[in-house]
């Protein structure tokens, strides 16, 4: 089986006022393609940092990361990716639709193909009715949805979502779960972080638990979580043993 | 190219949907009207003075506009976090820089055209007129100067926050505009090391005075020779390109994490 993401002995050290902060410590991670992969861990564990390395926003202090076997520092590595940031924010002066047009053009999609695709992603995130409003007038959850829509505009093979359900109402959460399972059904890979453990348990084929920059465990959800125990209970034990 | 144009188009929408351009345009209009109606300088509102002051304010406003809009593009992308979804797309840093420059420069040029239209209207109202060719030359060279200003502001903004980049660009371009043309005067008074230093500074700083055809327009000296005109255009293109290149070099390997600029 191919790996969508491969991370080898990845370390990231930030410095803050001269003191080093180790955000990631020799992380090894493999995300098999076609799977839904949950990436969980307490606040400050290094989940967002890992994603930032994968997208080339920050450099690894040591180690390497590859996406579909391409080094993450090459811009072409991002052709088949969709990304939803942790704090989704975007050009507030655009309307939702204009944002999607911009995003699509950056992937060199155009004309009828683009407008069809825009209608498709808008209905996926249930934003058809407000797509002609300025993003400045959107609520936090609507912002989240439009940013998710722009992440899916290129029909990506790998979707990286940083806390996709944060800020969403219960219906929104259910819709995101539906989007994730739809993506899997179409053979896509989803790599997402979340603090909603019940949700992770529900949709993930694989998961990895990170704490203080170190990997605690990774593997198929059914193998990681002992029979008869909930992920939440297991997570508490695993993290407190650290 | 599509990606560059897409970035430029977004800069466009962002700028025309904010208020600064309109404020400057209205200010300029108000100033011109005040000049014409109040006869502030007691000069009987002679056409020549209207032209002189009008062109001066057009330069001044376009300078402010060009610096403001181009120094804020990259830093606000970063502080707002909009740079993340953008860079997650298969866009190169070179395309991003080129798009930002193209967007801010074209906005500055189009607004400057409006400034000129306003001046032409007021001059006409005062019973005067501009000769077509010198006016066209003046606008083109003015646009070329704006391209340099936008490129300089962009270069500083790659590694500085919005405020710092804006101030430094104002200082540098202001110095280039007001002090550089007078360096030969100072040089005449200095000898030895000081003179050499002045010479060095003189040659290194961009020379905005060469883009400035205000005197020709005000005193109806007629057009500049085409040879000089094209040399100046090439000079503008060269400096702009140099600063865009510097921007790219500074931005190429830039890493983004929270709190970089705050
Ligand atoms: N730019 C930075 N400078 C210094 N330290 C940083 C920087 N970015 C992240 N860190 C540190 O790196 C560690 C990992 O942060 P990261 O954002 O990856 O955590 P996370 O797992 O995403 O947490 P959360 O669940 O709260 O989103 C934290 O200790 C954080 O303080
Ligand atoms: Mg995070």
Count the beta strands of chain A: 10
- What fraction of residues of chain A sit in β-strands? 25-35%
What is the number of helical segments of chain B per DSSP (H or I, 4+ residues)? 11
Mean pLDDT score of chain A: 88
Derived from helix and strand composition plus strand pairing, the structural class of chain B reads mainly alpha
Name every ligand kind in the structure.
adenosine-5'-triphosphate, magnesium ion
Query: Largest interface, by Cβ-Cβ below 8 angstroms: which chains and how many residues each?
Result: A-B, 36 and 24 residues
Tally of contiguous helical segments of chain A: 8
Backbone shape of chain B: globular
- SSE order of chain A, as H and E? EEEHEEEHHHEHEHEEHH
| Model regions low in confidence, pLDDT < 50 over at least 5 residues of chain B | none
CA-based gyration radius of chain B? 20 Å
Distance between the termini of chain B: 33 Å
Shape of chain A: globular
Terminus-to-terminus distance of chain A: 32 Å
Oligomeric state, counting identical vs distinct chains = heterodimer
Structure, described:
The complex is a heterodimer of chains A (242) and B (262). Chain A has eight helices and ten strands. Chain A is 34% helix and 28% strand. The mean pLDDT of chain A is 88. The radius of gyration of chain A is 18 Å and the shape is globular. Chain A has helices at 47-54, 96-106, 111-124, 140-152, 170-185, 197-203, 221-224, 231-240, and strands at 3-16, 19-32, 36-40, 62-67, 70-71, 81-84, 158-162, 189-193, 206-211, 214-220. In chain A, a hairpin with a 2-residue loop joins strand 9 (206-211) and strand 10 (214-220). With 242 residues, chain A is an alpha/beta fold. Chain A has a six-stranded mixed beta sheet with strand order 6-7-8-3-9-10, sandwiched between helices. Chain A has a four-stranded antiparallel beta sheet with strand order 2-1-4-5, with helices on one face. Chain B has 262 residues and is mostly helical. The longest helix of chain B has 34 residues, at 47-80. Chain B is built from eleven helices and no strands. Chain B has helices spanning 2-16, 20-38, 47-80, 83-87, 93-125, 132-157, 162-178, 183-189, 192-204, 214-218, 226-252. In chain B, helix 2 runs parallel beside helix 5 (93-125), helix 5 runs antiparallel to helix 11 and helix 8 packs antiparallel against helix 9 (192-204). Chain B has one domain. The radius of gyration of chain B is 20 Å and the shape is globular. The model of chain B has no long low-confidence stretch (mean pLDDT 84). Chain A binds chain B through residues 14, 49, 52, 55-59, 75-76, 78-79, 81-85, 87-91, 93-94, 98, 102-103, 105-108, 110, 147, 150-151, 160, and chain B through 2-3, 6, 9-10, 13-14, 17-18, 80-82, 84-92, 255-257. The complex binds adenosine-5'-triphosphate and magnesium ion. Adenosine-5'-triphosphate sits between chains A (14, 16, 21, 23, 41, 43-49, 86) and B (257-259).
């Amino acid at each position: 089986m191919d790996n969508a993401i491969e991370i080898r002995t990845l370390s990231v050290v930030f410095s803050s006022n001269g003191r080093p902060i180790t955000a990631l410590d020799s992380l090894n991670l493999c995300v098999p393609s076609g799977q839904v992969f949950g990436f969980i861990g307490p606040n400050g564990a290094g989940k967002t940092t890992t994603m930032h390395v994968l997208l080339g926003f920050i450099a690894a202090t040591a180690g390497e990361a590859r996406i579909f076997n391409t080094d993450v520092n090459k811009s072409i590595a991002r052709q088949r990716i969709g990304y939803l940031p942790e704090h989704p924010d975007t050009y507030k002066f655009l309307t939702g639709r204009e944002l999607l047009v911009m995003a699509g053009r950056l992937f060199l999609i155009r004309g009828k193909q683009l407008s069809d695709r825009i209608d498709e992603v808008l209905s996926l995130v249930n934003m058809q009715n407000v797509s002609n409003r300025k993003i400045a007038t959107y609520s936090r959850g609507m912002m989240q949805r439009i940013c998710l829509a722009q992440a899916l505009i290129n029909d990506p093979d790998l979707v990286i979502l940083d806390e996709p359900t944060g800020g969403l109402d219960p219906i929104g959460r259910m819709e995101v779960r539906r989007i994730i399972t739809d993506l899997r059904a179409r053979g896509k890979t989803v790599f997402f972080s979340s603090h909603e453990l019940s949700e992770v348990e529900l949709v993930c084929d694989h998961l990895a638990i990170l704490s203080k920059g170190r990997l605690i465990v990774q593997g198929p959800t059914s193998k990681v979580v002992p029979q008869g125990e909930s992920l939440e209970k297991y997570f508490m034990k695993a993290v407190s043993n650290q | 190219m599509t990606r560059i144009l897409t970035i430029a188009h977004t800069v466009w929408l962002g700028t025309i949907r904010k208020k600064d351009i309109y404020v400057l345009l209205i200010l300029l209009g108000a100033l011109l009207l005040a000049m014409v109606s109040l006869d502030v300088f007691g000069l009987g509102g002679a056409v020549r003075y209207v032209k002189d002051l009008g062109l001066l304010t057009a330069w001044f406003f376009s300078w402010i506009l060009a610096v403001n809009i181009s120094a804020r593009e990259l830093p606000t992308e970063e502080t707002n976090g909009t740079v993340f979804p953008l860079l997650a797309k298969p866009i190169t840093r070179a395309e991003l820089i080129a798009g930002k420059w193209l967007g801010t420069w074209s906005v500055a040029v189009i607004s400057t055209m409006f400034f000129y239209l306003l001046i032409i209207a007021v001059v006409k109202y005062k019973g005067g007129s501009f000769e077509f060719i010198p006016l066209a030359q003046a606008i083109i060279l003015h646009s070329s100067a704006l391209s340099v200003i936008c490129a300089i502001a962009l270069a500083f903004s790659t590694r500085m926050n919005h405020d710092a980049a804006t101030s430094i660009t104002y200082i540098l371009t202001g110095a280039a505009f007001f002090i550089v043309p007078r360096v030969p005067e100072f040089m005449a008074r200095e000898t030895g090391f000081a003179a050499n230093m002045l010479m060095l500074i003189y040659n290194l700083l961009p020379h905005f005075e060469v883009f400035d055809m205000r005197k020709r327009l005000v005193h109806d000296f007629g057009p500049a020779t085409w040879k000089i005109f094209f040399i100046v255009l090439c000079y503008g293109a060269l400096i702009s390109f140099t600063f865009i290149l510097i921007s790219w070099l500074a931005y190429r390997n830039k890493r983004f994490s929270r709190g970089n600029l705050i």
